[in-house]
Amino acid sequence: MRINEEIHIREVRVTSAEGEQLGIMLTRDALRMAEEQHLDLVEVAPKAKPPVCRIMDFGKFRYEQQKREKEAKKKQKTISIKEVKLRPNIDEHDFNVKLKNALRFVEEGNKVKVTIMFRGRELSHPELGRVVLDRVSERLGDLVSIERGAKLEGKNMTMILSPKVQKPVKAAKPAKQEDKGGNGDAED
Fold first, then answer.
1. Do both 101 and 146 map to the same domain?
2. CA 78 to CA 10: how far, in whole Å?
3. Which ranges of 57-119 would DSSP assign to H, the alpha helix?
4. pLDDT in tens, 13-46
5. Confidence (pTM)
6. What's the domain count of the chain?
7. What confidence tens digit (pLDDT) does each residue in 56-99 have?
8. Of 48, 42, 74, whose CA–CA distance to 61 is shortest?
9. Between vectors from CA 116 to CA 114 and to CA 119, what angle results, nearest 5°?
10. Which has the closest alpha carbon to 119: 78, 167, 86, 73?
11. What is the enclosing helix (H) or strand (E) of 27?
């Protein structure tokens, strides 16, 4: 975005800070007009014929633009991948604790990477790890979708779960009650 003396075009279409059209004029005249008002001439549409420039306080404009970008960044939800590490021969209580952590991560809107760590001879029985991963996905059920299934990577078997998007449930419309007034259809 070019401002003031950086604009090297002969003629520009000028608008005021309020958006009012001031017409097509020479750039030097537009600059003079902006200086008289103690404002800046800012090129807002360089590709237009002729380019569109606005007379405004550029510092204030930049500040408000940065403020809007900051607000948009705050509203933007970042999804991170959280990891839960398990062993193929994990006890029930330990499994439940890890499952509770995974559930908390999913409820926060994060993806969960479930890792089964094999040691020594356990690596010769990858089906044990697959059973544990199946238990995790079965217990989390409707809350998650499997983004990447069980995959053996070196001494670890991993699976990535992502939270399902919850669609708001619309309330069912109440059934219309029949009019019990005398409309002549009643049987006696």
1. yes
2. 46
3. 58-75, 92-107
4. 898 888 888 888 888 888 888 888 888 888 888 8
5. 0.50
6. 2
7. 888 888 898 899 999 888 877 777 889 999 999 989 999 999 99
8. 42
9. 160
10. 86
11. helix 27-36
Q: Is residue 75 part of a domain?
A: no
Token pair in block for residue 150: 């069980």
Distance, in Å, from the CA atom of 134 to the CA atom of 138, rounded to the nearest integer, reads: 6
List for the chain the helix, strand, coil content (%; round to 5): 35, 30, 35
Question: Distances from the Cα of 50 to the Cαs of 16, 24, 47, 54, 103, in angstroms?
Answer: 16, 8, 8, 13, 58
- Assigned token pair, 176: 């219309």
Is 182's pLDDT higher than 80? no
Cα–Cα distance between 102 and 113 in angstroms, integer? 9
Is residue 21 a contact partner of residue 62, using CB atoms and an 8 Å limit? no
| CATH code assigned at 98 | 3.30.110.10
The reply to whether 65 falls in a domain is no
Position 170, amino acid: K
